[in-house]
Amino acid sequence: MTEREHVRVAVIGSGFGGLGAAVRLRREGVTDFVVLERADSVGGTWRDNSYPGCACDVPSHLYSFSFAPNADWPRTFSGQEHIRAYLENVADVFRLRPHIRFNSEVKMMTWDAERLRWDIETTGGSYSADLVVSATGPLSDPKIPDIPGLDSFPGKVFHSARWDHDYDLRGKRVAMVGTGASAIQIVPAIQPDVRRLTLFQRTPPWVMPRVDRPISGAERALHRALPFTTKARRGLLWGIRELQTQAFTKRPNELVLVEQLAKRNMAHSIKDPALRAKLTPDYRIGCKRILLSRTYYPALAQPNVDVVASGLSEVRGSTVVAADGTEAEVDAIVFGTGFHVTDMPIAQRVVGAEGRTLAEAWQGGMQALRGSSAAGFPNWVSVIGPNTGLGTSSMIFIIESQLNYLADYIRQLDVLGGRVALDARPSAVSAWNRRVQERMKRTVWNTGGCTSWYMDASGLNTTIWPGTTAEFRKATRRVDLTEYEVVRVSADKKAETATETVTESEVASA
Predict the structure, then answer these.
(1) CATH class of the region 5-141+340-483
(2) Could you give the C-alpha distances from 136 to 35, 358, 399, in angstroms and in order?
(3) What's the whole-number mean pLDDT along residues 30-58?
(4) Residue whose C-alpha is closest to residue 23's, from 104, 100, 91
(5) Which family does the UniProt entry place this protein in (predicted)?
(6) Which CATH code is given to the segment(s) 150-211+239-335?
(7) What is the pTM of this model?
(8) CA angle 211, 214, 216 (to 5 degrees)
(9) What is the pLDDT of residues 12-27, one digit of tens each?
């Protein structure tokens, strides 16, 4: 048998969630941990997404850790290379590299009920851990639709998150499939260089101007000299988005005013009425993520760009065919078709206490207690778990809230003492999920009239948090042991579960 390296905590992934968890573990005095990373460097989605024009649509000072402020962000909305460099710096400053195991993709993770630990098989070795922190992120595994004839396409095919930098698009006929956050950055970046660009659009996005600018040297000097100014800037950006969240979660009809601004933004660049009609959404703004760009519409108005208001349905040799019958000859196909968000592949590799995979447990829809703990998966804590996503603010605030929960989870294990595990009670998970879904009913994400990647195959929104980040911070400030079963190892080395019970009303009021 392969000898396993045993650690107290195994963190899966080295993006914002994984690195943040590693920093928090060290701050809690936990140094016996590893970060298992499938690639050869840190960065997560900001390592994988290196396509032309890649940048964040959240302001830089808000899209960074509160415990690792960066006074030297070069722009108000920084590009991929700057965000990745920031994460590399976090790994260095907080001395995380000795804990990171690169080229170690998790192949299987199985709960050992007798030893109360997780056995983990990776491409780089075998491990066991008392606690697993899953920080793989929802934007990590690209999704390419099953298109008839795609396998026989003679040209180049790749996803935006797996950009082929060795393939030169200059002078090529390119099909861009999708109109999400990646596509609206790729289109204006490659449009000047390609011979012809055909954009396949199933649903037009709402696009607002991106108010981006360089951050001056004077501003950066001020932030370095007076760190509280960086904190104040972050706080102001956060507060504005907290106020905006109310319209998304409680009063979606108020967003009609924002729609008028978005239409003006379109009209400024798109003069052709027919093209404008193609690009005008028929759903409430905010139902899908609002996209930010000053260059997307001007690029679509150029003579070498065709907008096909229909999805790609078939490939015949070098010919791509839309659902409406439109055809185009292309040399390359670029998919900006998103990720496996509600069907994350990692869920198929996690086997819990009952011998079921996480994917099987989530067949009726992903759900986890406070976005962190799934019933039947003891000592397994998720970062950016079910219903923790945002459509209005920075995910870093959500991540740090879940790290608070993780820290208290570890403290509770220490207080309980001995070989012990916490398993979320099914009743507590269900009660939490019912409250989340009840709040979701009036949000723009559920009432806006669109089909988005926030929804799973059954139409359930298992992705978005239906409230403010402050509400989520409050909900995850501590672990409530009445929401968990305490599992210990008895004298005969078989796991036994604590017999204390909690009523439904007690869970609901927790």
Answers:
(1) alpha beta
(2) 11, 14, 12
(3) 97
(4) 91
(5) Belongs to the FAD-binding monooxygenase family.
(6) 3.50.50.60
(7) 0.93
(8) 130
(9) 999 999 999 999 999 9
